[in-house]
Amino acid sequence: MKLCLIGYGNVGYGFVRVLLRHGLWLRERFGFAPKIVAVHDIRRGTVLAPEGLDLEALAAAWVENRDLSELGKSGAGLDAFAVIQECGADAVLELTPTDLRTGEPAAGHIRLALTAKKHVVTTNKGPVALFGKELLSLAKENGVQFRFEGTVMAGTPLFSLVDFALAAPVRRVRGILNGTTNFILTQMETGKSYAEALAEAQRLGYAETDPTADVEGFDALAKIVILANMVLGGDLHPSDVPCQGITKLPSSEVQRAPKEGFRWKLVVEARRTQDEVEAKVGPERLPLSDPLAQVGGVLNALSLELDPLGAVTIVGPGAGPEVTGHAVLSDLLAIHRGLR
Ligand SMILES: NC(=O)c1ccc[n+]([C@@H]2O[C@H](COP(=O)([O-])OP(=O)(O)OC[C@H]3O[C@@H](n4cnc5c(N)ncnc54)[C@H](OP(=O)(O)O)[C@@H]3O)[C@@H](O)[C@H]2O)c1
Predict the structure, then answer these.
(1) Vertex 313, ends 307 and 317: CA angle to 5°?
(2) Mean pLDDT throughout 159-186?
(3) Is the CB of 330 under 6 A from ligand 1?
(4) pLDDT at residue 275 in the model
(5) Which residue's alpha carbon is nearest to atom 40 within ligand 1?
(6) Is the CB of 319 under 6 A from ligand 1?
(7) Would you state the pLDDT for residue 240?
(8) Helix ranges restricted to H, 142-257
(9) Domains and CATH numbers, the chain
(10) How large is the average pLDDT for residues 181-199?
(11) Relative to the CA of 319, which ligand 1 atom is closest?
């Protein structure tokens, strides 16, 4: 399988590192030996290499912040659209930054790649939250796959569980899908103010300098819209979903709750009612007996409810370059194995 990476930032680098570590095992176990034939990144440059790039050299170029064009045929002057058209890849990895308002430029990259009959794997929430069903239909029309495991819970398998292991429709999902706010709430419980807990999250690299998308709940909102539409079959736009973050939650309340047998969490939920799917995001005071109340720090968790299993809860990391790179690799492996 020949791959083209659009966006070579933290996740792209994480993907290359995971491939370097597990490449031999993937080849022996599944006969899967992907080659990276093109990389285009707005900051790091563009390289085309029909024979496949040396992965060690590609990883080193990231660490040393070198222009990618040194690694093969320079693609200087080509934009992402031209690279997708000219690279000769079987699959495009769309790993550019998320824009939750427009989904662009990723949505355009994905449409072009699918129309050109290339599989697409993305970790970018924007296009999936806004146009997920349209992109899935486009993939189907063109006889290729569109996979997005890394958009929710990063490398913790969720969509592959739903797609390949469940034999009944999911009725409801409920979970903690933002590690940054979960870390902040866990810190606040130990006596820190919101500002102190946020500063600690920023110091450890869990929160961005501008933490709005996390603390106001927008990141969790995008994820629950993806689940509502792609798992429960809804047709929601993010603006349809009530969303509240954690900024208005008094730390005195977060600290008092455990003494009374409760714990505050930023909870997302989507459920299928009689004839529609509804979703919400907001802080909830959960009894300590709730499995979600036991999920601390940056971990994510999701309970899926279906007949006859009841609730199945998965807990795992929800972010990180290599963890998300693993999601990309797992999607590619599913495509290689012909799983749909
Ligand atoms: N990191 C995680 O743990 C994680 C987890 C789940 C999902 N994701 C999602 O995965 C995607 C990639 O995340 P990341 O952490 O790798 O982000 P990142 O480190 O910011 O990398 C994105 C790279 O793409 C480049 N870029 C921006 N616009 C581009 C364009 N139009 N064409 C080509 N390259 C472009 C960026 O350059 P500039 O820096 O110059 O803009 C940057 O080098 C995002 O959508 C993110 O939300 C990330």
Answers:
(1) 145
(2) 96
(3) no
(4) 86
(5) 43
(6) yes
(7) 95
(8) 159-164, 179-189, 194-203, 212-215, 218-230, 251-256
(9) 2-155+321-336 (3.40.50.720), 170-317 (3.30.360.10)
(10) 96
(11) 3
Q: What is the pLDDT of residues 296-314, one digit of tens each?
A: 999 999 999 999 999 999 9
| CB 156 less than 6 A from any atom of ligand 1 | no
CA distance 111 to 41: 18
User: Does the CB atom of residue 9 touch ligand 1 within 6 A?
Assistant: yes
Q: How far is CA 122 from CA 76, 235, 332, in A?
A: 24, 20, 10
Report residue 315 as tokens. 């807990």
User: 307 CA to middle of ligand 1, Å?
Assistant: 38
Q: 208 CB less than 6 Å from ligand 1?
A: no
Q: Tell how far the Cα of 7 is from the centroid of ligand 1, in angstroms.
A: 6
What is the amino acid identity at position 33? A
pTM over 0.90: yes
Q: In which element (H, E) is residue 86 found?
A: helix 80-86
| CA 9 to ligand 1: nearest atom | 21
The reported pLDDT for the residue numbered 19 is 98
In this prediction, residue 192 carries a pLDDT of: 94
Read off the tokens for 251.
């730390």
Of the pLDDT bands very low, low, confident and very high (cuts 50, 70, 90), residue 213 is very high
**The predicted structure's pLDDT at residue 340:** 67
SS3 36: strand
* Catalytically active residues, by annotation: 223
SS3 (DSSP) at 61 = helix
Position 339 scores a pLDDT of: 73
Q: How confident is the model at residue 73 (pLDDT cuts 50, 70, 90)?
A: very high
Please say whether the beta carbons of 109 and 146 come within 8 A: no
CA 315 to chain centre: 15
Ligand 1 midpoint to CA 313 (Å): 29
